[in-house]
Design brief:
alpha/beta, Glutaconate Coenzyme A-transferase, nine-stranded mixed beta sheet
Length: 496
């Protein structure tokens, strides 16, 4: 109990320690359950594992699962495996849950990053029955010390009728102080001057009476590997570095560069490494998650500050982070999604928003979420907030997929997440299309010339030239706009 007393400093909460099985017994069919974290780390595991085992044995329980971003497989997939999720609200991280949604077995309501927690607080989705959060401990006053993620936990803890806290002994108490927890209200958000200056408190405020159980776990993360070399990601990163240099030379950007937001994933990691390896320095990052490449740029001494919602680190990077924790705490801060993704903060920081996508069309519209317009991958999540409010709205992705059979540049995307009004720059390994100040015909020509793969340029140019002959502001042939996707469905390839 000595170690536990160091973790649970609120003596009145010590008698609330229960097993994961006892916590699982507290769930009822139809409950709306909110949790937080990201697919690699920072989310509660033991409670949901135990709930999955209970459902496997007893059946009869389906919950509505709330989290603004994607979660790890030890929440989403273990519950999807046993039919334990009725509705997923937010975004998707688990492959098995994704499959269940696309088969129509689980309902999915796509959430918009920083907007979803605020909508829940306004009652759009009904009352929240339970919040389950990972923590490193409780303060003397009964406040919750966050783990490696802040994300949407503050809103869930406020909205929920009951709370289960999962204390992970694999998270060091030294994480305390990395967090800056505050909630959006009617007043302006006071993130000015030095973004590392705390505007909130280093804990989650919660009424101790709401906490109905504390589960102690020591479950380690199951993160992905370091990722393989990616020529496309490297090329995209180099195109962006060249673009930033041109913008500086033209006087539209100054050094050091404005804060950069970049999504997560292997391609994003390669892009980030190329940006970090450039001759730019004193980087400022405003991110959904702090990843391995960001840590590497900090270690290279090229970072001024990093603001994020969570850590998302592989085992090697996590070890380095813990070894030099105090150094990282001096240049990093974790805040809630409602602050990080706030239009006010994004606009005032002048964030360069860089996000990935599935496909782009020749008008500059972007599909980030649905394959062939139907099958969901993850959801729009935070790209919704950043693309609409960033100083620059940039979307990146490879020009082809499936071994070159699919063109990521098409006449019209099969699903629109980001309209042409939200997109400034498109980048593939082929090149960069600057769409600012261009009319629809000029946009189409630029995207085909700069971003399309050579195997598909002729097809796209032929479509465009014929579309130009039709009357109208936007060159489009409605009867052929989906022809690339139709051919893919019929033959397995978009090629002639």
């Amino acid at each position: 109990m000595g170690d536990i007393r160091e973790r649970i400093r609120h003596l009145g909460s010590l008698d609330k320690i229960i097993t994961a099985d006892a916590a699982a017994a507290l769930f009822r069919d139809g409950m709306k359950v909110a949790t937080s974290g990201n697919p690699l780390m920072g989310y509660p595991r033991a409670t949901f594992r135990a709930l999955s085992e209970r459902i496997k044995k007893e059946g009869g329980i389906k919950i509505d699962l709330l989290c603004a971003g994607p979660l790890g497989s030890e929440v989403e997939d273990v519950l999807a495996d046993v039919g334990g999720i009725r509705t997923r609200i937010g975004a998707i991280g688990g492959e098995k849950l994704r499959g269940a949604i696309n088969r129509g077995e689980v309902k999915f309501i796509e959430g918009k990053g920083g907007q979803l927690p605020l909508q829940v607080k306004r009652g759009w989705y009904g009352p929240v029955d339970m919040a389950v959060v990972e923590a490193v401990g409780l303060t003397e006053e009964g406040h919750i010390i966050p783990s490696t993620a802040v994300y949407d936990s503050p809103e869930w803890l406020e909205a929920a009728s009951a709370v289960i806290v999962e204390i992970n002994l694999n998270r060091p108490l030294g994480l305390e102080g990395l967090h800056d927890v505050c909630q959006r209200g009617a007043d302006p958000i006071p993130v000015v001057g030095n973004p590392l200056k705390r505007i909130g408190v280093p804990y989650f405020s919660v009424d101790p009476m709401k906490i109905i159980g504390i589960v102690v776990s020591d479950l380690a993360d199951k993160p992905s590997g370091e990722g393989k070399p990616d020529r496309m990601g490297d090329e995209i990163g180099l195109h962006l570095v060249d673009f930033f240099h041109r913008e500086v030379a033209a006087g539209r950007l100054r050094e050091p560069l404005p804060p950069i937001e970049l999504g997560v994933g292997e391609l994003a990691g390669h892009v980030m490494r190329k940006i970090g390896a450039s001759d730019f320095t004193n980087f400022r990052f405003h991110l959904p998650a702090i990843t391995d490449p960001v840590l590497e740029i900090v270690e290279a001494g090229k970072v001024e500050w990093v603001s994020g919602m969570a850590l998302r680190l592989t085992p090697g990077a996590w070890g380095r982070f813990l070894k030099d924790l105090e150094r990282y705490k001096k240049c990093m801060v974790l805040r809630p999604v409602t602050i990080c993704n706030s239009p006010e903060v994004i606009q005032r920081f002048g964030v360069i928003a860089i996000n990935g996508c599935l496909e782009m069309d020749i008008q500059g519209q972007v599909n980030s979420s649905h394959v062939l317009g139907a099958k969901i991958l993850t959801g729009i999540a935070g790209s919704y907030d950043f693309s609409r409010n960033g100083l620059y709205s940039i979307f990146v992705g490879p020009s082809t997929a499936k071994g070159g059979k699919i063109s990521a540049i098409v006449p019209m995307v099969s699903h629109v997440d980001h309209t042409e009004h939200d997109v400034d720059i498109l980048v593939t390994e082929q090149g960069l299309a600057d769409l600012r100040g261009l009319d629809p015909r000029e946009k189409a020509e630029t995207i085909i010339r700069q971003c399309a793969h050579p195997d598909f340029r002729e097809m796209l140019s032929d479509y465009l030239e014929r579309a130009k002959k039709e009357p109208g502001h936007i060159p489009v042939l409605m009867e052929e706009a989906g022809s690339f996707h139709a051919k893919l469905r019929q033959t397995g390839s978009m090629k002639k």
